[in-house]
Design goal:
CATH topology of the largest domain: Alkaline Phosphatase, subunit A
CATH architecture of the largest domain: 3-Layer(aba) Sandwich
Protein name: Arylsulfatase
Radius of gyration: 29 Å
Keywords: Calcium, Hydrolase, Metal-binding
Largest sheet: 10 strands, mixed
Distance between the termini: 68 Å
Family: Belongs to the sulfatase family.
EC number: 3.1.6.1
GO molecular function: arylsulfatase activity; metal ion binding
Number of strands: 31
Length: about 800
């Protein structure tokens, strides 16, 4: 039997005869030859993907008088390094021992001692913007990521949709012969696209990664994460009781992936983007790690800053004479806290430190796996220690549930006092108070979100590459920014910047390579200008000077108003003043004005305008949806799983839920529909033959409404009806109905438009139970024919 390729060949030969084509060998060969770029020219190609290789063989009438030329895959230059890009989350400059901080990070220390520490490396002050800029090599507004993706607005610098004209380094490396894998936190897919319907072109696997294992949100619960493998949700492999923690899970996956790539191809280099959730809230550390830090922070945040500053001077990570910037009047003093408060705040910090130490341990496992396999020496490790400074989003008192804080609920000190022994465990979602975030950013002012000051934007960077860098254990003081990582990788890998990707002309890369500094500590800075902006917190660096204007407290996320228009500017000569301690604005108004003008020039150049002080207000989904907002949602069957923002948007609005069920003989039980998690969420389920509705909201508004009517066998309609009471808390009355007959009602004290990190579902509750009455997944044992959610006002 002839194979299809042989049939095609015969068809061409026959067609040539029938059409009276001349059968000279040269013309015959031209039928099969492709006018494409020769393989030898591929290494310098600036168009991706690269064209198919030219056929180099010979075509005769049969294979016996023909010479094959099999099209080989794109390969890299011999000796090309692997690339391991590590990114931690919410880590301040003064947190880790490698940079003089109080948390022992021995694996980070080891990399730095055998590589380079950069002391003037910068991020954007927030996660999605930094992550996008890191991979694109362009400023965050240039890639439309001026804020996190959930806050996208309809302006070029702020949509949250990375343009096709700014291809990521993952695409460039993959199309140049690298295997590419991504593990951990991905926070750069537009929120409406995070659904089973996609589109998937802006998921990691649509942006150049062959493989993805991680979560596609700003954060996740470490004991109960929402995990995707490529584009499909997968359950966690084991329970917290069996020792599960997501950081260990993603490390296992990353190690397995690099080993499998090498097993399949001995010479193919890989790019591993290892993006941990550590140490973003919720701060979760295994209990044995928490125990290591008991009593270590009883001296408080003011004293800790002093200790860190002294250690930084001692090890030379900051220049001699660097001042410790004072505590802002907005940050409370440790001495003013009550003994009970100090106990809670110290416990929160112990847990935060444990999480960092545990993260270092897991990064160390990945590094040691490479050392054991012999791959570490020719792996370019670029270790960005934090996508911004330490976070102050836990509020002045810290919180037992940071997810509650995000939804506008401050549980306060009392909540943490009552549940102090749960902090860091599966039942908690904790975050440290502002004072500790400020301490972890020593010696700088401010924290995450505050792009005007180095407390928000200066992060450690460690580079390790024994086969490519002669220097070891040295510091580098050149001024650099996260957009400089991509050109550094491309130069180290000897790969050209692409000019056209998938037929789309690319914006030029805006970063500058750092390779020039690898073996020359005294090399002159190649980055002389860099702007910073985040929700009108703004700054401009130019030739050793910084002008900046802070606006809005990072723990007050709403109602900031337009005061930024008249907010004062500060001026620093950072060549002489490493920590921005000496404001020269009053002494040098002309210099300040020069830099303010420079900021505006950069803002216009990189799509920073219009300036917008709104923060939590930008969560409004109507800012990202065209046309009329939806008022109804219908789903079929027992197997619906959607991220909550993609599902029905019900509370705090008047609405009904109507489920058409088929109850088998003997009755049914299980979850009909739900959204959210154990800490906040709602669930409509059947137990004991009767309907139950549960609403829980961070221990401040828990209610269970037990139905009074049993569900009969056969077809039945189960309905709920919620009527708001008009209160600012979103409270109201919820009624149950079975086949139109009243079946119970109850009062909700409050409700919210979102309920944390877990999905909306029909037919089960997959991750953690919204109600303590059941264990997950508590699948519904009847048939859900159809369920409809309708807004009634």
């Amino acid at each position: 039997m002839l194979r299809p390729i042989h049939l095609s060949l015969i068809a061409v030969i026959a067609a040539a005869g029938l059409l009276c084509w001349p059968m000279s060998s040269s013309l015959f060969f031209n039928v099969f030859a492709q006018d494409t770029q020769p393989q030898a020219e591929r290494a310098a190609a600036t168009q991706l993907p690269m064209p198919d290789p030219t056929f180099k063989g010979k075509i005769g009438a049969t294979y016996k008088d023909s010479t094959p030329s099999y099209p080989l895959p794109v390969t890299t230059a011999k000796g090309s390094p692997n690339v391991l890009l590590i990114l931690l989350d919410d880590v301040g400059y003064g947190m880790c021992s490698t940079y003089g901080g109080p948390v022992p990070t021995p694996h980070m220390d080891q990399l730095a001692n055998n590589g380079l520490r950069y002391t003037r490396f910068h991020t954007t002050a927030l996660c999605s913007p930094t992550r996008g800029a890191l991979l694109a090599g362009r400023n965050h507004h240039s890639i439309s990521t001026g804020v996190i993706i959930e806050m996208g607005t309809g302006y070029p610098g702020y949509t949250g949709i990375i343009p096709k004209s700014t291809a990521l380094v993952s695409q460039t490396l993959r199309d140049n012969g690298y295997a590419t894998g991504m593990f951990g936190k991905w926070h750069n897919t537009p929120e409406p696209d995070i659904s089973p319907a996609g589109p998937f072109d802006r998921w990691p696997t649509g942006l150049g990664f062959d493989y993805f294992y991680g979560f596609n949100q700003g954060e996740t619960h470490q004991y109960y994460p929402t995990i995707y493998r490529n584009t499909t949700w997968v359950p966690q492999p084991k329970s917290p009781e069996q020792g599960y923690h997501f950081t260990a899970d993603m490390t296992d996956e990353a190690i397995a992936w690099t080993r499998n790539v090498r097993a399949a191809s001995p010479d193919k280099p890989w790019f591993n983007y290892f993006s941990t959730s550590g140490v973003h809230a919720p701060h979760h550390a295994p209990i044995e790690w928490r125990a290591k830090f008991a009593g270590k922070f009883d001296h408080g945040w003011d004293r800790q800053r002093e200790l860190t500053h002294a250690r930084q001077l001692e090890i030379g990570i900051i220049p001699k004479g660097t001042k410790l910037t004072p505590r802002s009047k907005d940050v409370p003093a440790w001495a003013d806290q009550t003994p009970e408060a100090r106990k809670v705040y110290a416990r929160l910090m112990e847990n935060y430190a444990a999480y960092m130490a545990y993260t270092d341990h897991e990064v160390g496992r990945l590094i040691e796996s490479l050392r054991a396999s012999g791959e570490l020496d020719n792996t370019l490790v670029m270790y960005v220690v934090g996508d911004n400074g330490a976070s102050a989003e836990g509020g002045l008192e810290g919180t037992f549930s940071e997810v509650a804080s995000l939804l506008g609920v401050q549980l306060g000190l009392e909540s943490s006092i009552k549940r102090i022994d749960e902090i860091g465990g599966p039942s908690s979602e904790p975050h440290v108070p502002v004072g500790w975030a400020w301490a972890m950013n020593a010696p700088f002012q401010w924290t995450k979100q505050v792009a005007s000051h180095f407390g928000g934007t200066r992060n450690p960077l460690i580079v390790h590459w024994p086969e490519g860098i002669k220097s070891k254990g040295e510091t580098r003081n050149q001024f650099h920014h996260v957009i400089d990582v991509v050109p550094t990788i491309l130069e180290a890998c000897k790969i050209s910047e692409p000019k056209v990707v998938n037929g789309i002309v690319q914006k030029p890369i805006e970063g500058v390579s750092m390779v020039y500094s690898f073996d020359d500590a005294q090399a002159k800075d190649r980055r002389t200008t860099q702007y910073f902006e985040l929700a009108t917190n703004r700054a401009i660096y130019h030739d050793g000077w910084v002008a900046c204007s802070p606006y809005g407290l990072p723990w007050e996320t709403a109602g900031r108003g337009d005061g930024f228009l008249t907010a004062p500017w500060e001026l620093y000569n950072i060549n002489e003043d490493f920590s921005e301690a000496n404001d020269l604005a009053m002494k040098m108004p002309e210099k300040l004005q020069e830099l303010k003008t420079k900021f505006l020039e950069e803002a216009q150049k990189y799509d920073v305008l219009p300036l917008d002080p709104r923060f939590s207000e930008r969560f409004d989904p109507s800012l990202r949806v065209g046309g009329e907002p939806r008022t109804g949602w219908t789903y079929f069957g027992n197997n619906v799983w959607l991220p909550e923002p993609i599902g029905p948007q019900l509370f705090t609005r008047a609405h009904t839920t109507s489920a058409e069920l088929n109850i088998p003989k003997g009755g049914a039980e299980g979850v009909v529909t739900c959204a959210g998690a154990f800490s906040a969420g709602w669930s409509l389920y059947v137990k004991g033959g009767k309907p139950v509705f549960r609403y829980t909201f961070f221990e401040v508004a828990d209610v269970t409404i037990n139905g009074t009517e049993s569900l009969p066998e056969g077809k039945v309609t189960l309905k709920t009806e919620f009527t708001p009471d008009g209160s600012k808390e979103g409270g109201g009355t919820l009624k149950l109905f079975v086949d139109g007959k009243p079946a119970g009602e109850g009062k909700l004290k409050r409700s919210a438009f979102r309920h944390g990190l877990e999905p909306f579902e029909v037919g089960r509750d997959s991750i953690t139970p919204v109600s303590p009455d059941y264990k997950t997944p508590f699948e519904f044992t009847g048939t859900i024919e159809k369920i409809t959610f309708t807004l009634t006002k």
